[in-house]
Design brief:
alpha/beta, TIM Barrel, six-stranded parallel β-sheet, globular, binds zinc ion
Length: 252
């Protein structure tokens, strides 16, 4: 029934994956959209997809952290591999800008370059995008607008203000709300959830939360849906039903 708009199942062992799917099913979760990181992650996603085609929707992309971490030659080799594999993915990404992770000018230029390349790739393949934008909404929106493209996709772990939200909505993106909503602070996100129509919001776990020590944690999606429902005065089941139909519009 319910979909998780963003997770990283490639972090889990075979045994834990089975637990994610069986414990998830008990909570009504049936489908997990992925965020791509690098080549080994895409290959793992493909393995999981072969085994569990109903449960996962693959996303292949070079995450901004991978873009800054890989040596230049590796980065280009992985990009070439990505362009070969991307036709098989459901979504393109994660891609975007992360100014919290790195503010070194050279690395920012590199992140922007690869962000633009992903936008072109997604357009060529007519596939939806998964965006990862941290402390860089201004420059990201400038790049997106300058591309002149029409977009489908989602901004994962969105936590920006209603004004920033409006910028992405105008471009056609969904805003994906995750466990941040359950934490103290996150005032802008709470304002955004209060003001943006549910038809633009989707719910994600971004699990595993701790990638060093991945744990099976399937209840984030229902918990975030409950928090969204409390803000909107809507039943959590309704929030999850709308989230799913929003994601279905991506044509995965
Ligand atoms: Zn992610």
């Amino acid at each position: 029934m319910w979909w998780d708009a963003h997770s990283h199942l490639s972090f889990y062992s075979e045994q834990d994956l089975n637990r994610v799917f069986s414990e998830g099913a008990l909570l009504g979760l049936t489908t997990w959209l992925q965020g791509g990181y690098d080549q080994s992650d895409w290959e793992r996603q493909q393995q999981i997809y072969r085994q569990f085609p109903k449960q996962i929707r693959t996303a292949f992309g070079l995450h901004p952290w991978a873009v800054t971490a890989l040596a230049p030659r590796q980065l280009e080799l992985q990009w070439t591999r990505l362009t070969d594999l991307a036709p098989q993915a459901h979504l393109i990404g994660e891609t975007g800008l992360d100014y919290f992770h790195s503010r070194e000018p050279q690395q920012l230029v590199l992140q922007e370059d690869f962000f633009r390349r992903h936008l072109i790739l997604a357009a060529e393949l007519s596939k939806p995008l998964v965006l990862h934008i941290v402390q860089a909404h201004g420059p990201a929106l400038t790049i997106l607008k300058a591309s002149g493209q029409a977009f489908r996709g989602l901004v994962h772990a969105f936590s920006g203000s209603p004004e920033v939200a409006e910028g992405y909505l105008r471009l056609g993106f969904l805003l994906s709300v995750g466990p941040g909503l359950l934490k103290k602070g996150y005032k802008q996100l709470k304002q955004t959830v209060a003001t943006v129509d549910l038809k633009h919001l989707v719910i994600e776990s971004d699990s595993p939360q701790n990638t060093e020590k991945p744990e099976v944690e399937v209840n984030w999606v229902p918990r975030v849906a409950r928090a969204v429902g409390e803000i909107k005065g809507t039943a959590p089941e309704e929030v999850l039903a709308i989230s799913r139909s929003n994601l279905e519009r991506l044509g995965l």
